[in-house]
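Bench log. Compound arrived from synthesis this morning; before running ITC I wanted a structural hypothesis for how adenosine-5'-triphosphate sits in the protein. Inputs:
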Amino acid sequence: MPMDQGRSPAIELINVTRRFVSPTGKTLTALRDFNMTVERGEFVAVVGPTGCGKSTTLNLVTGLARPSAGEVRLMGGPVSGIDPRVGFAFQKDALFPWKNVIDNVMAGPLFRGKSKADAERMAKDWLARVGLSKFLHHYPHQLSGGMRKRVALAQTFINEPEILLMDEPFSALDVQTRTVMHEELLKLWAERQASVVFVTHDLEEAVALADKVYVLTAGPATVKSVYKVELPRPRVVSEIRYDQQFIDYCKTIWEDLRQEVETSYRRASEAA
Amino acid sequence: MPMDQGRSPAIELINVTRRFVSPTGKTLTALRDFNMTVERGEFVAVVGPTGCGKSTTLNLVTGLARPSAGEVRLMGGPVSGIDPRVGFAFQKDALFPWKNVIDNVMAGPLFRGKSKADAERMAKDWLARVGLSKFLHHYPHQLSGGMRKRVALAQTFINEPEILLMDEPFSALDVQTRTVMHEELLKLWAERQASVVFVTHDLEEAVALADKVYVLTAGPATVKSVYKVELPRPRVVSEIRYDQQFIDYCKTIWEDLRQEVETSYRRASEAA
Amino acid sequence: MANIAMEPAAARFRPGTSDTEIEAAALRSIKRRKQVVLFWQIAILVIALGLWEISSQLNWIDPFFYASPSLVVDRLYDWAVNGTTEGSLWYNLGITMEEALIGFFTGSIAGVVVGIGLGRNRMLSDIFSVYIKAINSIPRVVLAPIFIMIMGLGLASKVALAFIMVFFVVFANAFQGVREADRDMIANARILGASDWQVTRTVIVPSAMSWIFASLHVSFGFAIIGAIVGEFVGARFGIGQLISIAKGTFDAAGMFAAIVLVMIVTLVAEYIMTLVENRLAKWRPQQSLDTH
Amino acid sequence: MANIAMEPAAARFRPGTSDTEIEAAALRSIKRRKQVVLFWQIAILVIALGLWEISSQLNWIDPFFYASPSLVVDRLYDWAVNGTTEGSLWYNLGITMEEALIGFFTGSIAGVVVGIGLGRNRMLSDIFSVYIKAINSIPRVVLAPIFIMIMGLGLASKVALAFIMVFFVVFANAFQGVREADRDMIANARILGASDWQVTRTVIVPSAMSWIFASLHVSFGFAIIGAIVGEFVGARFGIGQLISIAKGTFDAAGMFAAIVLVMIVTLVAEYIMTLVENRLAKWRPQQSLDTH
Amino acid sequence: HAADKITIMVGGYEKQIYLPAKLAEALGYFKDEGIDVELLNEAAGVDAENQLLAGAVQGVVGFYDHCVDLQAKGKFIESVVQFSQAPGEVELVSAKHPEIKSFADLKGKNLGVTGLGSSTNFLSLYMASKAGLKGGDVVSIPVGAGGTFIAAMQQDQIQAGMTTEPTISRMVKTGEASVLVDLRTVDSTRAALGGTYPAASLYMETAWVDAHKPEVQKLANAFVKTLKFINTHSAAEIADKMPKDFYVGDKEGYIKALEAGKGMFTADGVMPEDGPKTVLAVLSEFSKNVKGKQIDLTKTYTTDFVKQAM
Ligand SMILES: Nc1ncnc2c1ncn2[C@@H]1O[C@H](COP(=O)(O)OP(=O)(O)OP(=O)(O)O)[C@@H](O)[C@H]1O
Ligand SMILES: Nc1ncnc2c1ncn2[C@@H]1O[C@H](COP(=O)(O)OP(=O)(O)OP(=O)(O)O)[C@@H](O)[C@H]1O
Ligand SMILES: [Mg+2]
Ligand SMILES: [Mg+2]
């Protein structure tokens, strides 16, 4: 796999800080001196208390937002605007309400200059994989929450991005569908040798999928600790949960995370 | 608890059918001959494959939508329009973007004729419970996904509804915050002797919280089976997961559900 | 009825009612609704015209100024059958419609293009919106003679007036429509690989569509007004001329007849526009399609 | 710049730069942006006026018809210092402003109220929108004399004209704004216990606000036009009178001077309106407030 | 009652043909008579009559032919003070068409008029028919007045046209047009139309006049005095009394135009004997309203008040 040996990492966040002005006029620091490196072909999971700054981090990587200080680098170059190699599954789906399901999924390939026939074939294929073949012509408002999320995933996956960012992509899905999605994701990752950053609240999911798990501190987010998950690949997500090593990983990370979540919750509860 | 002995149940769905016209002109049946009874003071969890019709069911109970056939009854009377005794946490939050956090939470009490001071006091209290005291004056777009969800919960809880409908309320929260929310929910339920219908994809959550778990079939949803969870109350959600009885419940229901989810997935994948 | 989130009260069915029965009932209820609307529309029209006729018959209002429906109908009939002093009615109507339609299309296209252009480019909009607003405040009646001086008495000057009536309304809405486009959706499109132009075409334009249509609904009337104002100031044919002659000869019936004609044409245009809009907006949640 | 989802290019800071430094840089960049905008605005103004002046000096265009900036400024200065033949300039301006402002406020309030009323009640809107559209197509120049006949030559008839210019534009937008209000939000409000009126007040009105403001921005210009058209048909004082006399006496400079005056007033009103709008819309995501 | 305000609408009080209105005010004659007169301006002549009939104004300064026209429609208004005995208009011919030397040469040409159905329209057609042209030989094009008239002639959309000051002076000065028929003096009007043509006048509703004789008398007094003033003063002296905005920039031109046109005003406000007949002749030939109707000309004017005023 030659791409894995590429000298520069896929994603680098170097001493990144991101501030917002809060309505009371004070600045709110969402990220402070944040450092993270994702090698090419690596699968990184990010966990942390709610509101700590995970989505903010992904936004910086996409180029949708800029750091207040520090630097973000993609494939060795600085981020300037939106990079065509990046795919991003938003936390809150952003489907186009005026396009039906298949047109939504076809949007990416069409934007990227694929022919209509190709795009349609690919879209049908991906919609079959996410289990929505029967809903090609429904409009987003006619779908359930989980179905919309799956359309959004197909929309992202169809572009087969080199760098794949996902913000809690599977939280609206039932366990079984989630398993199917896990497998599709791992397949895509392996085939494309993509680099993945995967934000989730489900620790088991994080350990089952990732090479590295980043645990973030309560906001302003910094990296608290990084765990290398050395479970053998290929992993069968539905079975791995009975593996003792897996359970140990989960326990360790859970302990680590719990402290942060507690800090976060305590801190947030104190009256401003 | 005299209210528990009230003769008529809190919610009754009798032979309810709900159809939609799909874009291809065919009718899509989301619910068919659906029957469900929630006694007063009962805590019911609903699980089922994504897209089977859970949200549709809740919509019918609120009165936001009407059944195509069959009848929905609340507290013994037919549903006609929106009932003030119902509280509903939407699957997709519907905060008012032009109101800041505290104004969003105060909306309910103010609508219901509470004084501004009272509403503010209550809202502050609830925001502290969901851990957002520091964000009173933020606008929704300045919050993270999990924070928005918590505002929406405070907005629903503050009305202390007699009938509480919740559509995947905690899926965007980290485990710790979720635990806190579970406890708040159980407290509210116990204090108000409310009747709760709780839709979730997290089976453990369902079993840990509910008196009864409804398992729905793949859409068109009908009730596949109902499980009475006879774990002692009060339950401490964070500890119950190590209880053998709990684990058994989960296993049984999981098996039951898995078949449905598989059917659902298989059926949906077949090209329409 | 007052709550748009609620669905219209539907008949309640016993369990087991078949789909066809339910659909038939839904269709019936839609049809009944249409009938009620039509009934009231006609009732209001009849009452208004009746009042007008009676008060002018009884001289409560002076028919010299306000004519009466029967006189207006007479005049319209006469014009339709015998033509006007300035040639056939249809020819005059055609002239005005030509001016108004060209002005309407060019004006709304320009309004949409400039609105979207400035809406997407904050620097340009900051610089130019001041000028656009200033120009919008020039009375069109003052512009009319200037346009005629520059462009002559022919089609061009009237089209220009219709254009300028339409442009600003459409511009204002297209501009704001662009500003209101959902940021997440734009971000999503860009990440999916859309170029600037593709974002405009697939996200900005569709989401500004309801804004643009809202302005088009008033604009067609404005385009006709523009054409007529131009014809007032100088023209050989057209509805504006008919009105101006009628005014000059104290012919109230003629004036109202011309106005009625304009109204009818506008309503037809409006109807066509609504059809187009409904076609374009077929992705929107529509309650009446639900089977109850 | 072309992509509104992207944030403006910001300076890149070394790690460790303090918050105050970063904020100062942000403020600087905002200030620089304002300066660039102002520069271009002035540049365009100067170039346009310069071209006008030169071409009239060199007789490329006939200053008899099109005056020239210097003549217009002279006339404005003269009016301001010595008054017009019809009394002090400010008095005339005041009259027109009074008519326009009353018409603007009543027209936009009526437009909003009727728009929201019909927007929330589909039956009423189905019945009445036909009539509203028909009335909108009546040329205002035809209405002017009718209004004066009914309401006399005083303030009332001009206000009515300004009203009718404003009403339809605001109505169309308020109506569509109501229709576009998010259904989930309405549902949420109702479930939280809101009455119909509370839903209107707390959900419908705020979400239609940007629609309403979009129409108000064009409407103020329209209100002035209405007032001036009314003054054309018959009045003693007012900017419309000044324009009409200037036209009658081939006083191009006077005509343009009056128009310039109207423009300035409109821009001031526009500025105030933007301030109000920004205040009301302070909940919206605003990029320039981010510290970079 | 005498203190009540009398509102008079003028069809453009900056126009020289309606000059007596503003002049009377400037000379203070209304005040001298103890009446409170408000002059209102109105750009397009025809609306004024409607306002008069609707009672919004008590008097109108406008063309006498409306009195005839309205009688055909059953409305009775009468000229109380007759300002002019000539229309004050001029048929201009474009310099691009030197071949046009008389009305007869206009065959097949486009004639500019202010509006279809306006006095300029009827007068043009009348003169054309007097010159032996038949209906359809000339085409009337409504071009308004002022800039649009000039533009239409420059663009050769009209080869000749009837208009008033200050357009006349302007076009003659620039050499773009010359005078074909001058209807500003009594003599040339007689020559062209076969009689005097009473035009600018103060007219009022007959019923109102009958009910307000004292006020009307005072008005007549003021206007007759004004007309005398015009007769006894030079154009320059009159111009001095007028608001300066009326002759912006080109006072000389204004005075010259006034000199040329001063002769159209009556000396005493009395309706010239042969005037109404000419008007009726013109209207009954070309106005749809008047054609074939029985008109009682004596009811279209009164000289009672002006005679008293002398
Ligand atoms: N536009 C904004 N203005 C002000 N503050 C903001 C803005 N966007 C985000 N924040 C703040 O930044 C912090 C981090 O938000 P972020 O969305 O990155 O959290 P998150 O880790 O994704 O949380 P979750 O798990 O709930 O999605 C929060 O405290 C939020 O209030
Ligand atoms: N407005 C609509 N028009 C047509 N079909 C609809 C509409 N709303 C829902 N449906 C269909 O009804 C079915 C049930 O939807 P519902 O939202 O109730 O599912 P759900 O059980 O809540 O799923 P999830 O777990 O994904 O939220 C889906 O197949 C969906 O496509
Ligand atoms: Mg997030
Ligand atoms: Mg759902």
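What the model suggests: Chain B touches chain D at residues 62, 64, 82, 84, 86-88, 90, 92, 94-100, 107-108, 111-112, 139, 141, 155-156, 159 (CB under 8 Å). Confidence is low (pLDDT under 50) at residues 1-5 of chain B.
ITC booked for Thursday regardless.
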